[in-house]
Amino acid sequence: MADIDTIAIAPLFGPPSPARDQTDLRIMAAASGVGFMAIRDFPGDDRLTPQNRARLLAIFALPETEKEKLLRWNFDRTKQNVYRGWFPLQPTAVSYKEGIDMGPDIADARTAPIGFDASDPLCEPTPLPLESALPGWRQAAAGYYKAMETVGNALLRSVARGLGLAETIFDADFEGGISTLRLIRYPLRDASSGVDLSGPDFSVLHKGETRTIIGREHADSGFVTLLAQDGVEGLQARTLAGEWIDVPPADNTLAVNFGQLLERWTAGRMRATRHRVIAPKQTRFSIPFFYEPRVDAEIAPLPLEGADPFEPFLYGDYLWDTATKFVEMSGVRHLREPRRAKAS
Ligand SMILES: O=C(O)CCC(=O)C(=O)O
Ligand SMILES: [Fe+2]
């Protein structure tokens, strides 16, 4: 049975060394094999203590009226924001979760970072709770965002080296990136919500026990996802052989999976692994960080031997196409036109 490797990645933050080469190899093996790994031992890993996670997750304790102020347009037509902000529980959806999506503006007060386009919903500002409602929360979220960007950068270079490419090959595309920090709460599903939970969409057998699905099977769309689980199990990854394996939570550790963009970019050398969440016996929280390029990055074939060429595309166009298929983004697809017309 495939296992998920836990890799101490400190060597990635130092000069070239045999230990760094070894780390690159392990990351490459995880990315091209099961497509999941766990990482620990990196700058900012102290942000992943139970106490520091709790500071970010305190947003869920806000009164409903405060959370409603952060809703997106598809859930509240009086709002302007369509991409960033709050998504509420959708009782009849397979994914039973609520939360918030936050962009780079939470960590960088500059109004026009590189690649920024004010007319693009993918660059819109994040609606945030008032400082007085949650003192210190904004600062904690900004610090967390920056720490994850640093980890993402280090993985980016490791992936480049692992592919045998110049380690800086991706750098320019990620300067001014539009990564998303998401906070998720999965409450216990209300049995009286009118959904028949017995169907195969909604429940699976796990170690002889029937478990409800609360996070629908999917692959992430971006480059790499850095996921902090809050001590409660439930996350599962699908192996190449098609079996589901548990991705257990661990303090000061991030579960890492690779996204569809990376899979496409590397002609399948790195795997965008499908994953899902099955319901634990208590409320579950998680903190994914989707590490992403800038909105106007042109994704073009890499100089990889034997890789099939593809038509270059703009990251923003690809992201909109992919992201608007997720249930929390339903109904917004028509609000953004591709920035580059497809060659016909
Ligand atoms: O909650 C989790 O552990 C997984 C979340 C996830 O897969 C996602 O938000 O893309
Ligand atoms: Fe995911």
UniProtKB/TrEMBL annotation:
InterPro entries: IPNS-like_FE2OG_OXY, IPNS-like_sf, Iron_ascorbate_oxido_reductase, Oxoglu/Fe-dep_dioxygenase_dom
UniProt pathway: Alkene biosynthesis; ethylene biosynthesis via 2-oxoglutarate
A Pfam family recorded for this sequence: 2OG-FeII_Oxy
EC number, UniProt record: 1.13.12.19, 1.14.20.7
Domain Fe2OG dioxygenase stretches: 177-293
Domain of life from the UniProt record: Bacteria
GO biological process: ethylene biosynthetic process
Keyword Oxidoreductase tagged: yes
PROSITE patterns: FE2OG_OXY
PANTHER family: 2-OXOGLUTARATE (2OG) AND FE(II)-DEPENDENT OXYGENASE SUPERFAMILY PROTEIN-RELATED (PTHR47990)
Family: Belongs to the iron/ascorbate-dependent oxidoreductase family.
Protein name per its UniProtKB record: 2-oxoglutarate-dependent ethylene/succinate-forming enzyme
